[in-house]
């Protein structure tokens, strides 16, 4: 299954322009030139990004260039549809947003839908790595105790000029904070709309965010399983032996 998705990913980026006389890039080279790297063994998807906001309220965490940089911390050039395939390739499973708002509860019951996001960058020649949640502030609690728990919801397909398109590729949201349903990932908690009042939503943590323009690498991995989730297989085994 993962190999199939890896091949699909290669298909998505193999259409990159190749000059006459040049050899087509390998799968890994093609992905890297598209701003994304995949390590199936480590279960990591690494995406090149740039810090585009150093203070302010947020409606997105990550977006495409020339879209939501005024309300997102990072911009990426990697197509959201390719990120979606990368998450599938490392064994994750989308939990789509539904009309009744039940997707968050469903995601809590499905470890394969939950994602951790890390960020790597250099400061004064030293490599730094943080949980991406450390760059956020909960506006209601006025603290930085934000969980590192993101849901792989997946975007959806629609039509544009009679062409079938992946919505996030067109709309530009890559990781959202629950205000729309087209992004590839969403925050796991409902914190409200930051544009409605001063106690809703998330904002940039100005004490921890890298300087605007800093080049970073975003690392997407499966979220660590909680103790009760790790106990489930053993409990099921005992139940079967009765």
Q: Can you give keywords for this protein?
A:
8-stranded mixed barrel, alpha+beta, 3-stranded antiparallel sheet, 242 residues, disordered N terminus, single chain
Record field, number of beta strands: 15
Mean pLDDT: 86
Q: State the share of residues found in helices, binned by percent.
A: 10-25%
Strand adjacency order, main sheet: 2-5-4-12-13-9-6-15
Radius of gyration, Cα only, in angstroms?
19 Å
Shape: globular
- Put simply, the count of helices is 6
- SS content category: alpha+beta
How many angstroms does the end-to-end distance come to? 33 Å
Estimate nothing, just give the exact number of structural domains. 1
β-strand amount: 25-35%
Taking the sheet with the most strands, its summary is: 8 strands, mixed, barrel
Q: Which residues sit in consecutive blocks of at least 5 with pLDDT less than 50? A: 1-10, 13-22, 234-240
SSE order, one letter for each helix or strand: HHEEEEEHHEEEEEEHEEEEH
């Amino acid at each position: 299954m993962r190999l199939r998705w890896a091949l699909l990913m290669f298909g998505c980026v193999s259409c990159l322009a190749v000059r006459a006389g040049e050899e087509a890039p390998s799968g890994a080279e093609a992905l890297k030139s598209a701003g994304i790297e995949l390590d199936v063994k480590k279960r990591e998807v690494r995406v090149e990004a740039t810090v585009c906001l150093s203070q302010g309220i947020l409606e997105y965490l990550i977006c495409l260039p020339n879209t939501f940089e005024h309300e997102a911390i990072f911009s990426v050039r990697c197509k959201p549809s390719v990120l979606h395939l990368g998450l599938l390739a490392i064994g994750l499973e989308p939990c789509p947003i539904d009309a009744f708002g039940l997707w968050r509860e469903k995601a809590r019951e499905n470890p394969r839908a939950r994602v951790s996001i890390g960020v790597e960058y250099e400061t004064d020649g030293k490599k730094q790595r943080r949980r991406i949640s450390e760059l956020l502030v909960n506006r209601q609690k006025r603290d930085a105790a934000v969980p590192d728990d993101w849901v792989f919801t997946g975007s959806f397909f629609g039509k544009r000029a009679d062409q079938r398109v992946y919505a996030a590729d067109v709309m530009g949201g890559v990781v959202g904070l629950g205000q729309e349903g087209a992004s590839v990932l969403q925050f796991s908690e409902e914190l409200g709309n930051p544009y409605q009042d001063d106690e809703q939503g998330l904002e940039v943590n100005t004490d921890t965010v890298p300087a605007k323009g800093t080049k970073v690498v975003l690392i997407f991995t499966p979220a660590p399983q909680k103790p009760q989730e790790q106990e489930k297989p053993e409990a099921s085994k005992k139940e079967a032996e009765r």
